[in-house]
Amino acid sequence: MTDVRETASATPATSATAAETNDPAASVLAIDIGGTKLAAALVRPDGRLGPLATRPTPKGDAEEVFAALAAVATEAVGGEEVSGAGIGSAGPLDAIAGTVSPVNIPGWRGFPVRDRLAALLGGRPVALVNDAVAGAMGEYHHGAGRGVRAMLGMVVSTGVGGGLILDGRVYAGATGNAGHIGHTVVDLGGDPCPCGARGCVETITSGPAMVRWALANGWSGAETTGVALAASARDGDSVALAAFDRSARALAAGISSAAALCDLDRVVIGGGVARAWDLLEPPLRAAMADYAGLAFVRRVEIVRSALDGQAGLLGVAALVHHPETA
Question: Are 204 and 300 contained in the same domain?
Fold first, then answer.
């Protein structure tokens, strides 16, 4: 039976500069670019995080978003010398070109974030990876992914992303987008997705998708947020509970397919939706019993992130501090 608990290769297309930033004695500027929040912190070689700087992700044009990113980077550095930087960004991205086109940041399409940040840092090298790949690296080195050979790290929040560690190394694919489980199709003919497809995991499982579905089916929360939806579910609201059940079933379908393709040991789930693990885990366990048919798929462990939102920052720093796994 699939184990669902709370805690627990090929050459990647990460930035070619990732190994060049490796200075075992220096701090790295780690940046996490998400659809709702930008975050940055210095990370020491032993994994200790400096003070966290955050800003809401602007809804404006490319330069407005970059100005907010520059502000969090400057605040996090605080005048300290850094050897380089790592960026984990919502996707899709082109890690070879150093550009990003996040589905949830419409102002950035083909935006050259790697080169722009390198210029801001006086030419210091910058590594760029998908944010879920960064999260997987963080869990692999510091969290719930330690000790496994094959894992999928997932971020279930404003969007749904994934990053693969296979045979102890990042597998990022030809352009840096491998593991993008949020854009695998689990509902033929389902709702349109911002990526251009229909019926993706993200259209059912992301926090905003859950809230939209609940509102369309009669939920009337005081606030139209995922936190409010979780509170209603804990109070026994039938529509809110059904939203979590529906989300869990889509997650289980996606995870079962990923496990069948990649023969995974473990799946680590983080992000805002995973903070409601008490509501997500029981229907996820039940749905995995339906969708995980093959014996090697049933053996996969599914656990909650052990790093409570820090996995992405620790992961992009790990790409610099541990280039042998990149």
Answer: yes
CATH of residue 238: 3.30.420.40
Are 209 and 199 in contact, with CB atoms under 8 Å apart?
Answer: no
The average pLDDT across 152-178 equals: 90
- Residues 127, 224: one domain? no
Indicate if 155 and 280 belong to the same structural domain.
yes
Shared domain for 199 and 53, answered yes or no, is no
139 and 23 in a single domain? The answer is no
CA atoms within 13 A on the CB side of 157: 22
Query: Helix/strand/coil (H, E, C) string of 214-258?
Result: HHHCCCCCCCCCHHHHHHHHHCCCHHHHHHHHHHHHHHHHHHHHH
What is the four-CA torsion angle of 264, 194, 93, 153, rounded to 10 degrees? Answer: -20
One-letter amino acid of 253: A
The whole-angstrom separation of Cα 138 and Cα 170 is 11
What is the rounded CA–CA span in Å between residue 136 and residue 145? 8
Q: How far apart are CA 142 and CA 30, in angstroms?
A: 15
CB 98 within 8 A of CB 63: no
Same domain flag for 91 and 212: no
Q: How far apart are CA 118 and CA 272, in angstroms?
A: 30
- Say if residue 200 is in the same domain as residue 101: no
Rg (CA), the chain: 19
Residues 172 and 268 in one domain: yes
Is residue 274 situated within a structural domain?
yes
pTM for the full predicted model: 0.81
Summarize pLDDT for 35-57 with one digit per residue, the tens: 889 999 999 887 889 999 999 99
